[in-house]
TrEMBL record:
Residue ranges occupied by any NAD-dependent epimerase/dehydratase domain in the UniProt entry: 3-220
Protein name as catalogued: NarL family transcriptional regulator
The organism of origin for this protein: Streptomyces tirandamycinicus
A Pfam family this chain is assigned to: Epimerase
Annotated transmembrane regions: none
Length: 301
């Protein structure tokens, strides 16, 4: 089996590519110099991309590329235009290939507290990131290809990007050290999020790559709403942090707009035979261990 992983050098892409290695030959796609397919979906020409895809002749394509809310323009170019261009190229070059696209639970927007959202829930994204990820999902789901969108919760686990809440918190705790007088301050931490270990996500992608016909959209998450405050305090325990954690002022804009989020993962269990294996404690321990020796993680990659 020949599998192309777009965004193979990113946080999610690295784990996905490693998991897919057991299924066949994995090719990396993206902007990095060592990519087997050099492409930037934000600016790619569909015709040229189709030619390159025809040469590669993949049996499956996994799109892990995305913009993490950098700015509205970049979000639109990468998260909305990118999947549309990819679908147009695949229709011309490899219409029989399975396409697995990583969407986001941010597409749902605000949810009713206590009610996990299913795949047919209304989508009301609260940020440009969520809105552009939704546009990408629509492009894939309506493409006519053999495609599935995995709507991913908040990824966590080894190697988490410093731009994420878990990765950024781990770095702040590392810098604070074990000084009992250290104080790490946050905004409001009362929001709830649904976290999924990146290794569990990679298993879900592998299952989606090889399964028979699938629904157009599947939720992939931990299936549990976790108070961000709980995550921060548990990570502090894992880190051996002995100082104080203080909350002051407001949290992020997204936390203010989306106070509670949790995805129903019943459909993924039924369609993929998949469910999360790693607990939140497992994920936080792996995240902390992945930081390496003190000082190594102080400069965001």
């Amino acid at each position: 089996m020949r599998i192309l992983v777009l965004g193979h050098t990113g946080y999610l892409g690295r784990h996905v590519a490693a998991q897919l290695g057991a299924l066949g030959s994995v090719f990396g796609g993206g902007r990095s110099p060592d990519a087997d397919l050099r492409v930037d979906l934000a600016t790619a020409d569909p015709g040229r991309l189709a030619e390159n895809l025809a040469d590669l002749s993949p049996d499956a394509v996994v799109n892990c590329s995305g913009s993490l809310g950098a700015d509205p323009v970049t979000d639109a170019e990468v998260n909305a235009r990118g999947p549309a261009v990819l679908c147009a190229a695949l229709r011309r070059a490899a219409p029989a290939a399975r396409l697995v696209h990583l969407g986001s639970a941010a597409e749902y927007g605000a949810c009713e507290p206590g009610v996990p959202v299913t795949e047919d829930a209304p989508t009301r994204p609260a940020t440009s990131y969520g809105a552009t990820k939704l546009a990408g999902t629509v492009a894939v789901a309506s493409s006519g290809l053999d495609a599935v969108v995995l709507r991913v919760g908040n990824p966590i686990g080894p190697g988490a990007t410093p731009m994420s809440l878990p990765g950024g918190t781990a770095l702040r705790l590392r810098r604070a050290g074990v000084d009992r007088d250290a104080v790490v301050r946050f905004g409001d931490l009362s929001a709830h999020r649904d976290f999924v270990d990146v290794r569990d996500l990679a298993r879900a992608v592998a299952a989606a790559t090889t399964s028979g016909p699938l629904p157009r959209i599947l939720n992939i998450s931990g299936g549990r709403a976790v108070p961000i405050r709980e995550l921060v305090r548990e990570l502090a325990v894992v880190a051996g942090f002995r100082g104080r954690i203080e909350e002051a002022g407001v949290g992020s804009v997204r936390s203010a707009r989306v106070a509670w989020q949790c995805s129903d993962i019943t459909a993924a269990r039924e369609a993929l035979g998949w469910e999360p294996r790693f607990t939140l404690t497992d994920s936080l321990a792996a995240l902390w261990a992945s930081l390496g020796a003190p000082g190594e993680a102080d400069s965001p990659a």
